[in-house]
Amino acid sequence: MSDPPVRAEGLVRAFAGTPVLAGVDLVVQAGEAVVLLGPNGAGKTTLLRILALLLRPGGGRLALFGTEARAAPPALRRRIGYVGHESLCYPDLTAGENLAFYARLFDVPDATARIAELIGWAGLELAAHRPVRTYSRGMAQRLALARALLHGPDLLLLDEPFAGLDPEAVAMLQRCLGALRAAGHAIVLTTHDLERAAPVATRLAILHRGRVAWTQEGAPEPVVVAAAYQAVVAGRA
Amino acid sequence: MRRSLPPLVCATMLAALWLVFMAVPTEREMGIVQRIFYFHVASAWVAFLGFFLVAGASAVYLWNGARTADRLAEAAAEVGVLFCTLVLVTGPIWARPVWGVWWTWDPRLTMTVILWAIYASYLMLRAFGGEDEAVRRYAAVLGIIGVLDIPLIMVSVRLLRGIHPAVITRNEGGSGLVDPWMRAGLGVSALALVLLAVWLIALRMRSARLAEEVAALRREVLARGGEAA
Amino acid sequence: MRGALAILAKDLRIEWRTRESLASVFVLGVLLLVVLTVAHDPAPEAAPALAPAVLWVSFVFTGLAGIQRGFLLERENDCLAGLLTAPVDPADIYAGKLAANVVLLGATQAVVVPLTGLFLHADLWPVLPGLLAVLLLGNVGFAALATLFAAVAARTRARETLLPLLLLPLALPLLIGAVQATQAVLAGGLGAAREAVAVLVAFDVVFAVAGWLLFAYVVRD
């Protein structure tokens, strides 16, 4: 087996002196979908942004596809797709224009066809010529997803992707993530909403006070997870 | 080194003061007020050196993230702005009796004002840039850009001479000092102020390090307290 | 390189779509000129002498406002993260933004300069080529510094208040050079402005290169 998409050891990160990550170890193999749970302030977003090469860790090691993150060449970013809290799309441009811009940056081959394909997939055909500013939350989220998938990344990082989606969009996202995972991509996603994320997960982990406090293979019952969650947040340091 | 610095500074300062006020002869044209020149020029040299120190420390900080380098840059900027202010204060005191005006947009004065403004903006950035680590990086970038600006400032202010008539013809660089006592006065004053600056910077760096340690301890206590509760 | 062009095209397209910066620049430029002219209230013969200073002061302040907007653009929807997760060198981001700012500042000048000529009875036509050269050099130098520090200001707490504080002291040599060059050009064409133009060229080169090298340190966390 070649190098795993994510190998993180002892990741540490502080903001203005306050520690946010206090030693996170995480390995994600291709075909895995890891769901990160945790209370606010646990460091989920920070961890994801470090994996997306948006932040540098204060300590520890990170290797993506075998390459040290510190020495990451631009080409490495081509294999990563990131969906953050915000859409990462320019509000005054249309969906088509946004995707065209990112297609240029990522050097996507056959861009026009790919963009049309994704706009169709995201159900944005009718809105494709309106500025993103006019989109609903759900539409913006689908666009953000399309943007992340545009260049066909092997590793997909999603920060609370189910937030603000209607049931239909949730189902679509679940199908999409399932298909990607089955096709051998690696997925890491954070969420508050276990119910929506559970169907997708091959592994669950709870992040608390900057560490991975609990982890479980497979897709355990939500009840089990909820109990573990309570235990972690209440007692364990 | 820390032990020997204060007495050394005292000794050189006393020597400088003695030289400037006692040993050096009174300048023929300007009279007694000319004695301020020694500290004025020495301060200007220190302010200038401070700039390069800020830039050097900034470059090191960007290169390897060493916290000491960042503290040095900050301390050098604070001490630099102090001496720059001294230049801008002693200058008019000297100028008024000699030239009859408090100020003129002579190239050298203009340059000093601009230097002061750049120092000040650096300190503003540190003060109001927020708490994040990133501010140190931004300040380092500013420190480097500031030093790159210096030759451009020197060249551009010479353009001003064309428009504003020179108020007086004064010694270029303040040299052209013939009397050996005068040269000694300038040399010792410069040495005294440089040593003083080094001492102040060292003190400032130590104070910054201690402040960081206190803050870290405070955070630890609060975190422990949170866990116990 | 490709990244820089894409960013340039994107910024220009957004600017054209909203025309927010252009509108505010136009209004601000006019207001500044009016204020500066009326405050001095020069006699018609004396007015042209003011033109270089008035022109460049107006340029600096309208330019500041315009460039600031350019980076606030990237804050909305966390778009800067979008750029940083792309396989684009931060130096290319700088180059693209610099080019976009040069265009925006050029539009600013297209408004400010004719109005200055109008309000201050300065005859700009005969010296237009030389004047355009000086305007371009001043533009590029200012944009080089402003692009770098607008990124800094956008990412700090104090934001808008910080940019003028950081930029103006550093830009003083440029301002001096530009005013002197404009003065010389108005008097005797480009040849007379050789010294000042040299300062401008040096400024442009030093800070475009410095910005290009240092931008990564500003945007990469």
What does this structure look like?
The complex is a heterotrimer of chains A (237), B (229) and C (221). Chain A has 237 residues and is an alpha/beta fold. Chain A is 34% helix and 26% strand. Chain A has helices at 44-51, 74-77, 95-106, 111-121, 137-149, 167-182, 194-197, 222-234; strands at residues 6-15, 18-28, 33-37, 59-64, 67-68, 80-83, 155-159, 186-190, 203-208, 211-217. With 229 residues, chain B is mainly alpha-helical. Chain B has six helices and no strands. Helices cover 83% and strands 0% of the residues of chain C. Chain C has helices spanning 2-18, 20-40, 47-75, 79-84, 90-119, 128-154, 162-188, 194-219. Chains in contact: A-B, A-C, B-C.
Essential attributes:
heterotrimer, A: 237 residues, alpha/beta, Rossmann fold, 2 domains, six-stranded mixed beta sheet, four-stranded antiparallel beta sheet, 34% helix, globular, C: mainly alpha, 83% helix, 0% strand
Global structural class of chain B: mainly alpha
Using only C-alpha atoms, the radius of gyration of chain C works out to: 18 Å
Task: Report the count of strand segments of chain C.
Answer: 0
N-to-C SSE series of chain B? HHHHHH
Q: Quaternary state, please?
A: heterotrimer
Shape of chain B: globular
